[in-house]
UniProtKB/TrEMBL annotation:
It comes from Streptomyces thermocarboxydus. Residues 11-117 form the Thioredoxin domain. This is Thioredoxin family protein. PROSITE patterns: THIOREDOXIN_2 (PS51352). Residues 1-23 are annotated as: Disordered.
Length: 117
């Protein structure tokens, strides 16, 4: 995905681990989860929601979870989310395998899922 891919490049998980999936408060995907951090007045967040929803509907076992960044400041701080939209791709174990900031293109999201599947 376009944007910051630091967690994947550095081999780190941005402070997230297997416990992240449990902290989301939503059902995660069997194979992968697209986690989107959004805010109320973020125009690119709406387009990102649409793109991630379309990809999740296309790929079996993939779920899209949207997190209100303002309501979940604990996760925002722990994961180093500085802007919205920020998208994390989690593998089946809940580990962050890709991270991007900004509105992604559908092709980039599909390609990023390859790291999780």
């Amino acid at each position: 995905m376009r944007g910051s891919d630091e967690a994947a490049r550095s081999g780190g998980d941005g402070g997230a681990g297997p416990g992240l999936a449990a902290e989301l408060g939503a059902e995660t995907g069997e194979r992968a989860t697209l986690v989107q951090f959004s805010s109320a007045f973020c125009a690119p967040c709406r387009a990102t929601r649409r793109v991630l929803g379309e990809v999740a509907a296309m790929v079996p076992g993939v779920t899209h979870v949207e997190i209100d960044a303002e309501a979940r400041l604990d996760l925002v701080r722990r994961l180093g989310v500085e802007r919205t939209p920020t998208v994390l791709v989690l593998d089946a174990d809940g580990r962050v395998v890709r991270r991007a900031v900004g509105q992604p293109r559908k092709a980039d999201v599909i390609a990023a899922l390859g790291a999780a599947l």
